[in-house]
Each structure stands twice: as C-alpha cells, then as structure tokens.
Specification:
The chain is of the alpha/beta class. It has 9 helices and 7 strands, in the order H-H-H-H-E-H-E-H-E-H-E-H-E-H-E-E. It binds S-adenosylmethionine.
C-alpha cells in the first residue's frame, strides 16, 4: 500500500519533470565527461543562468556529444518555454544524447539533429537568443560567420575551449575580440575557457 503511493506522491510533489532528477542524472554523466569531451559544471551552471536571464526561447548548440551541456540549456528552457536545437555529426553520440534527454524528461524541449553543422547551419531559422559553439576547433570561425547574422541584438555567442585549444581557433579568437558587431568577455571560472560574445 505504502509502496504503491510512493510514485504518485513523488509526481505530485515534483511534477512529471523534476529538475533535481535531471541534475542527479547530470552528475552520473560526469563519470564519462572526459570520454565525451563535456564542459565542466561551472560552464553548465553559466549556460543555465544565461538562458534564464535572457528568457531564451531559441538556443542552438554546435557539438552535442552525449548531451551534457545541452541538458543545462534544456533545464532552463523548460522554465522559459524555449527550445534547444543541437547538432552532432557522430551517430553513436547523437543516439546516446537522445537517450540522456529522454532520461531527464528534457526530450520535449530538444531538437537533436544528426548532421554536419557546416551543412545544417544555413538551414537553421533566425532569430536565435544563444548559440553555443563546441565542435571541431579549427572550424570555429566558419560556425561563427554562419550564425552571427541569425543571433538577435542582445543575444550571445558562447564558445568552449578558448584556453586549452586557443591555437587551432586563433583566427576565431582574433575575430571575436576585434569584431565591432560583438562585445566579448571570458568566463573566469571556466577551466578550458569560455568566450562570451554579446551581439550589439
Ligand atoms: C567537445 S564535444 C561536445 C561536448 C558537448 N558540448 C558537452 O559539453 O557535453 C564536440 C562534438 O562535436 C562534434 N562535431 C565535430 N564536428 C562537427 C560538425 N561539423 N558537425 C556536428 N558535430 C560536430 C563531435 O563529434 C563531438 O561529439
């Protein structure tokens, strides 16, 4: 009797979607973080916060891997009524990401696409509130040029690994610090480096 009441009571308290539930799944995903090349928790916390602050409705991620960073955005988008489009070229990682979004009850706010971002990006509809770049490092400038016209004024382009992969993305780093279309800063607490370029 008591056991049969536990699940309905849990759903009553937490709703069908439970952020604590999603967060504990994120902690489990950290075990594979190095293999999956995921961002660190402080970067994820920042994604969650910036999506809430901007009341984001349309977020684009380039480089899903298995869904760790995407889940941080998706948790915020559950609250703002928004949606995440996330692009991944590797079929195994794409499939694992879809399973993770399902397990966290986030799949309804995520459009996970198996594709080459360089081919898909011209098809992504504007306007975008946030773009997160985290795919092939030497292509960052190409991704940036494809998404910049689609980001609304006041929106933001984030990019990962600006410290530990600065060499392969030097052309991108030079551009975001000189481009009059954006104002760029860096997240101090990000271990691998996160650039934050606000569109003017
Ligand atoms: C660093 S991982 C992404 C990690 C993920 N953002 C996270 O923090 O959980 C980079 C991913 O980008 C994918 N990738 C590389 N080039 C790509 C492309 N042209 N289009 C789509 N995905 C690409 C790789 O297969 C890899 O899974």
């Amino acid at each position: 009797m008591i056991r049969s009441l536990v699940l309905p009571l849990f759903l009553l308290v937490s709703g069908p979607y439970s952020e604590p539930g999603a967060r504990s799944h994120l902690d489990l995903m950290r075990k594979d973080a190095r293999r999956n090349m995921s961002v660190d928790p402080p970067d994820g916390e920042y994604f969650y916060k910036v999506a809430l602050d901007l009341k984001a409705r349309r977020v684009l991620e380039i480089g899903t891997s298995t869904g760790y960073s995407g889940a941080w955005f998706a948790m915020a988008l559950k609250k703002t009524g928004g949606r995440l489009i996330t692009l991944e070229i590797d079929p195994d990682r794409h499939a694992e990401a879809k399973k993770n979004f399902e397990a966290m009850s986030l799949a309804d706010v995520v459009d996970a696409r198996l594709c080459n971002a360089l081919i898909e990006l011209p098809k992504v509809e504007a306007p975008l509130d946030i773009v997160f770049i985290d795919a092939w490092k030497p292509d960052y400038l190409k991704y940036y040029e494809l998404v910049l016209p689609k980001v609304r004024a006041g929106g933001v382009i984030l990019a990962h690994n600006t410290k530990n992969a600065a060499g392969p993305m030097k052309d991108f780093l030079d551009r975001i610090q000189k481009d009059p279309a954006v104002r760029t800063e860096f997240l101090p607490e990000s271990a691998q480096g996160l650039s934050i370029s606000w569109k003017k």
